[in-house]
């Protein structure tokens, strides 16, 4: 981890970019015959990476000039759906745990791993009482900038919320990194980790004696109206794509629950589906292009049929007739407190 830089929070929406820069197209420009059906996804958007690309924020130390994994535009587009999907059922047991043992005199210290533009903090901070200090971890300095500038101003009871940013690697988290932590959070992260990386995260949380709230992991199930004969094939191909390179994909929550339990944590799970309708047409369109694109990349033999499928789904989306449920799961791991834990 690099030396943290403390930033005063401003609150509000994600600001404009600090300057021109190149971003990695997420899904990129789709070649003819590979489920194009019009313009490609916005740079950085969708669930489909370029060939050979890790389906995650670039949290690993692979070069200082490496571009962002997700564009801020995609993260901003999905933020309302994420906020509506996260489970409130896990907040009460989390609040109980954060109140016992007594919290630090200077408030909660919350580490947000792979924070992106900081949507997790904007959702969670206003649901927790007391002063909070958020430590935002990400590989991309541009996303850290957005997260810091748009961080929440206050907690549920009006207490002050502060933030600092740390550019670093999720694989380097250790109990020492989390010394004094009250909580570890992450959003849409578990499914883009390997079993070893989830094990390292669980070991770090258990060693520090702090709970973990890990939201919006893909569950591998999608429901679209009206049902189509290709739905299941596209879903299966997409799920296989998510497992490339040893990533956990739709198996992530099951594996994480097992691993945290092995470290002595009490684990609670809750569903957190995206429910997309006419009011989320822009997000649905981007998601569809990425979802189908990843499936075709995994199984090229689907391409000819997927073109028509995608065009039909996009037409229904534009007409306000398409509704989609993208299933996710949230996980709360209540690790056993250790001496000195917050």
Fill in the keyword field for this structure.
single chain, 342 residues, nine-stranded mixed beta sheet, globular, disordered N terminus
How does this model look, in words?
The chain is α/β, with parallel strands linked by helices and 342 residues long. It is 32% helix and 18% strand. Strands 1, 2, 3, 4, 5, 6, 7, 8 and 9 form a nine-stranded mixed β-sheet that branches. The model is unreliable at 1-68 (pLDDT under 50).
Shape: globular
The number of distinct β-strands equals 9
β-sheet strand percentage? 15-25%
Query: Which structural class matches the secondary elements?
Result: alpha/beta
Concise summary:
This protein is about 30% helix and about 20% strand.
Topology:
Layout (H helix, E strand, L loop, with lengths): L4 E3 L64 H14 L5 H9 L8 E6 L5 H6 L7 E7 L2 H9 L11 E7 L15 E5 L7 H14 L3 E14 L5 H12 L9 H11 L3 E6 L2 E3 L4 H18 L4 H16 L4 E12 L8
Parallel strand pairs: 2-3, 2-5, 3-4, 5-6
Antiparallel strand pairs: 1-4, 6-9, 7-9, 8-9
Helix pairs in contact: 5-7, 6-8, 8-9
């Amino acid at each position: 981890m690099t030396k943290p830089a403390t930033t005063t929070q401003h609150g509000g929406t994600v600001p404009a970019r600090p300057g021109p820069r190149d971003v990695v197209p997420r899904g990129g420009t789709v070649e003819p015959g590979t489920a194009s059906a019009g313009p490609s996804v916005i740079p950085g958007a969708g669930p489909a990476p370029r060939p050979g690309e890790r389906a995650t924020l670039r949290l690993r130390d692979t070069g200082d000039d490496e571009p962002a994994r997700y564009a801020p535009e995609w993260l901003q587009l999905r933020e309302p759906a994420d906020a509506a999907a996260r489970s409130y059922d896990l907040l009460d047991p989390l609040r109980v745990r954060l109140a016992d043992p007594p919290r630090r005199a200077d408030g909660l210290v919350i580490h947000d791993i792979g924070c992106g533009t900081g949507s997790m903090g904007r959702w969670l901070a206003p649901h927790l009482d007391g002063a909070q200090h958020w430590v935002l971890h990400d590989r991309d300095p541009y996303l850290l900038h957005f997260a810091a500038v748009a961080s929440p101003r206050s907690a549920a009871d009006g207490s002050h919320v502060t933030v600092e940013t740390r550019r670093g690697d999720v694989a380097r988290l250790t109990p020492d990194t989390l010394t004094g932590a009250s909580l570890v959070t992450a959003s849409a992260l578990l499914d883009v980790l390997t079993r070893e990386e989830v094990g390292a995260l669980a070991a770090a949380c258990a060693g520090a004696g702090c709970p973990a709230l890990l939201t919006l992991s893909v569950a591998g199930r999608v429901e679209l109206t009206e049902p189509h004969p290709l739905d299941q094939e596209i879903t299966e191909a997409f799920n296989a794509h998510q497992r490339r390179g040893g990533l956990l994909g739709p198996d992530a929550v099951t594996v994480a629950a097992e691993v945290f339990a092995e470290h002595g944590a009490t684990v609670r799970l809750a569903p957190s589906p995206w429910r997309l309708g006419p009011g989320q047409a822009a997000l649905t369109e981007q998601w569809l292009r990425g979802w189908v694109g990843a499936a075709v990349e995994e199984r090229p033999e689907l391409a000819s049929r997927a073109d028509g499928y995608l065009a039909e789904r996009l037409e229904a989306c534009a007409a306000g007739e398409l509704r989609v449920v993208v299933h996710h799961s949230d996980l709360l791991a209540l690790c056993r407190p250790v001496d000195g834990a917050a």
